[in-house]
Amino acid sequence: MSMISTQPQHGGIALIVEDEVTNRMILKALLKKRGYHVIEAENGAEAIQLFQQQSPNIIFMDVMMPVMDGYEATTEIKRLAGDEFIPIIFLTAMSDEKALARCVEVGGDDFLSKPYSFTVLSAKVKAMERIRILHQDTRMLYSRMQRDEEIAEQVFSGAVIAGNVGLDRIHSLLKPASVFSGDLMLTAYAPSQDMHVLLGDFTGHGLAAALGALPTSEVFRSMTGKGFAPQQILSAINNKLYNLLPTGMFLATQFVKVDHQLDHISIINCGMPDCFLVENESMHIKHQIVSKSLPLGIAPDIDFKDDFHHLRVKQGDRVILATDGVTEARNSKGELFGQERFIQAIIKSDSNTYILDKLARDLEAFCQDAPQDDDISVVEVPLFPDLLPGRESPSPHIVTGGDMPHKLFSHEQPDCIEFQLIFYGSQLRQADPVPILINYIQETAGLHEHRRPLFTILTELYINALDHGVLQMDSKLKQGEEGFTNYFQQREQRLEALTEGKIRIALRIHRNTDGGYIVITMEDSGHGFDYASLSQEVANETIYSGRGILLVKSLVKQLQFFAPGNKAEAIYVWEDNL
């Protein structure tokens, strides 16, 4: 273990810069008594040359000399020394205050008056030695701190940033104010093929602000991967941070869910500056989403559900998320960049380029060389199909076509796993059974590679049963610019008022040596619907009813409804060896 110096060390090389031989001889004799090896220069130019050749530990500099005076020589030596502390003591008989002030301005560290006193010289040399050692120790500690931060930043990047997805399509401007950023960007795909994007801003910046990023990213990715809804993910992060962070520290955040159909987004703003939904061709701001909810980590058990905005979108629209480091960026005059400049950068952008390209140029032109006070983070999410995971054909192990493979239904091996969940009345308000079911299937039957199609099947069937069965919602409400907003508002109102109704979910899982099948039954207490006419209703792509059911049909071997249409049975078949 290396030790930090605590005592001054005598000796070293001392450079005397003096054009008077007598003065050099006297000072040389005094410095030798202090244990120094002494080198001499007659003017500033020689002093610079000797400094570069022999690297003295301390310099005694006369002011008035031929060729180059002490002021100019000191300025150049300090420049060459860089971060290393080389004390320069000016030798002067001057008493003029302006001349003495000039010595300090050019980098002088002390004065030694002529004629020289050994006692005063010794005291000043000891003081310079102490300062030099403190400077060395400080540099050593700073170097260690930088190295520790670099290692921590590597760990941080691997644990937090490396797991992000879609970065070839999502455009971001991330400028930390120090090695560590208190801002956080997370992206992940849900099993439903929705995309979740979170942009957060912890209180302050630097390593202390970044510490909360690890638990935040862990909860975000774990719950997104299991299929939990955005409001559940935010609630879990909030409770985690509330129990973890010290008082006064919190996470302001913006969270957007991009639906896999690319027809709507769900977005929330918790204590952050406004975020924007921008129309692609015209760069018109369609929606400006203000903060309605508390930042995360301030209070426990916050219900975020009612603070989400559900907005209809079109292909090519952009979502712009930003931290307050953008609007609060300052120029050399102390002026703020402000929201108006931010909005102007958006609406004056070229539709064929990223909005962030213009915003970055505007910020640079505005701030120029002014110091950066806070982390700056902006994220642009372009709503194009390649943003989402590809909708390739189903897994090659899934059997969807041809006749039903009767051998899979053979009762020679009747072993199976069978269970059901039933939700009644008000329990349907908070119920989100799909992640529970998927995890249970994986725990009991494995089938990890089938997680995504099974999640889609269960989600679509459950939403159909809840929305259209129990709540009697009409998908035609989704039509129009405010359609999704009106639909979700009415849905929440009906859920809050719900006191009766029932949904039964039953699963029967069969496995054999060649594969297996799962029988999924979804039954609700609603009045049913005209399932015979379903194909005709969804022929027009602008109609929002029935599309989820057709998606289920593309993933299962068989889907049938039972009269009056409030019970569905899907059979999901796979083969292990094709």
Short note summarizing the structure:
With 578 residues, the protein is of the alpha+beta class.
Task: For the structure shown, list the relevant keywords.
3 domains, disordered N terminus, 21 strands, 16 helices, Phosphatase 2c, domain 1, 578 residues, alpha+beta
- Flag low-confidence runs: 1-9, 537-544
Radius of gyration, CA atoms, in whole angstroms: 36 Å
Name the CATH architecture of the largest domain.
Answer: 4-Layer Sandwich
Q: What is the straight-line distance between the termini?
A: 62 Å
Average pLDDT metric:
84
The top level CATH class name of the largest domain:
Alpha Beta
Helical content, roughly? 25-40%
Query: What is the number of domains?
Result: 3
- The computed structural class is alpha+beta
Count, helices: 16
Name the CATH superfamily assignment of the largest domain.
Answer: PPM-type phosphatase domain
Task: Please indicate the percent range of residues in DSSP E strands (runs of 2 or more).
Answer: 15-25%
Task: Explain the overall architecture.
The protein has 578 residues and is α+β, with helices and mostly antiparallel strands. The protein folds into three domains: 13-139, 3-Layer(aba) Sandwich (Rossmann fold), CATH 3.40.50; 163-387, PPM-type phosphatase domain (Phosphatase 2c, domain 1); 398-575, 2-Layer Sandwich (Heat Shock Protein 90), CATH 3.30.565. It is built from 16 helices and 21 strands. Strands 16, 17, 18, 19, 20 and 21 form a six-stranded antiparallel beta sheet that branches. It has a five-stranded parallel beta sheet with strand order 2-1-3-4-5, with helices on both faces. Helix 7 (213-225) runs antiparallel to helix 8 (230-244), helix 10 (338-347) runs antiparallel to helix 11 and helix 13 packs antiparallel against helix 16.
